[in-house]
Write a structure and sequence with these properties.
By secondary structure, the chain is of the alpha/beta class. About 25% of the residues lie in helices and about 30% in strands.
């Protein structure tokens, strides 16, 4: 049986994307994605933005952002199967002109993409290996007025990321969601 996720709202609302990413990646469910986008919608920050979907998995966060008005989404995914699924999902929604898929580890990408900046950075590392030292490297890619959205295990500890402050932190079942912005320092 094929696994699928639904785009929740916006231009592609109700469209289905593949979630056949194998056992390595755990796709984020509708409830948590809906909560994230509710948090972002309340801040009116999506329309026209550049989005980075790190540890992208299915690409659902970056694709949902496009559906809701983001201008461009970049996906970072090291797992070959998951990256292939993202490529299929990009084709399914016909958004190849608004996307870039990079098949690499997030840590490696931060070394070669020194000057790339994003309005919203989605970070959904594996809960069993949250890689917070790698996550902290993404802060330098955040626009001055941007937000970093981190999904982590509700059993885990909220990381102390240098250069950013928490502006919201909520728990949804097994997932915790934290929004960070650059600190005023």
């Amino acid at each position: 049986m094929s696994k699928r996720l639904r785009i929740i709202a916006g231009k592609y609302s109700g469209r289905w994307i593949s979630a056949n990413v194998g056992s390595i990646t755990h796709p984020m469910g509708d409830r948590v994605r809906s909560a994230i986008f509710s948090m972002l919608d309340s801040r009116d920050v999506l329309v026209g933005t550049r989005v980075l979907d790190a540890f992208a998995g299915t690409g659902a966060l970056g694709l949902e952002a496009l559906s809701r008005g983001a201008a461009f989404s970049t996906f970072l995914e090291q797992d070959r199967i998951a990256a292939d699924v993202i490529a299929v999902n990009i084709t399914t929604l016909n958004v190849s002109d608004q996307t870039k898929l990079i098949k690499t580890e997030v840590g490696n990408w931060t070394k070669i993409a020194e000057n790339d900046k994003y309005n919203i950075i989605f970070v959904d590392p594996p809960y069993q290996n949250p890689q917070f030292s790698t996550v902290s490297k993404l802060v330098k890619h955040l626009h001055a007025d941007g937000l970093l959205v981190l999904s982590y295990s509700e059993r885990g500890t909220l990381p102390n990321l240098k250069g950013v402050v928490v502006v919201d932190n909520r728990i949804y079942g097994e997932a915790a969601i934290a929004l960070f912005r650059l600190s005023d320092k």
